[in-house]
Amino acid sequence: MSIRGDCRSIISIYRIGRAEEIAALNLREYLYSDGVSFIEWIERLPPDEIDEYLEVSLAHDNWSKRQMTFTAHGKQYEEMVKQLRSKHKK
After folding, report:
1. What does the domain layout of the chain look like in residue ranges?
2. Which pLDDT score, from 0 to 100, does residue 37 have?
3. CA distances (Å), 84 to each of 5, 15, 55, 88, in order?
4. What's the number of CA atoms in the CB half-sphere (13 Å) around residue 12?
5. Count of beta carbons in the 10 Å neighbourhood of residue 64
6. pLDDT, tens digit, 9 for 90 and up, residues 14-42
7. Which of 14, 31, 32, 67 would be 61's cystine partner, CB 3.0–4.6 Å?
8. Which residue in 34, 35, 75, 33 sits closest to 54, CA to CA?
9. How many CB atoms lie within 10 A of CB 11?
10. Distance (Å, rounded) from C-alpha 57 to C-alpha 73?
11. What pLDDT score does 4 carry?
12. Dist CA 65 CA 86 (whole Å)
């Protein structure tokens, strides 16, 4: 399994506080074009801003390891997570 497309953008919305500021960013132009977009602080977006996405969370497992958690939001990404899980179990 692979995610096809170039990295389109890396977007941090940490300092965005109001809906008008989000609208001014025109995120849909980035999110619904070809390629992959990464959003930091996605929980700050209004719930209806993105239809489907793959959430990737990173956490410290210990000083030298990180734990990645994939959470699917939408059918397309449910299939990706299912494939990742089946490959990881082998």
Report:
1. 1-45, 52-90
2. 81
3. 18, 32, 13, 6
4. 2
5. 6
6. 888 787 888 888 888 877 777 788 888 88
7. 67
8. 75
9. 17
10. 13
11. 53
12. 22
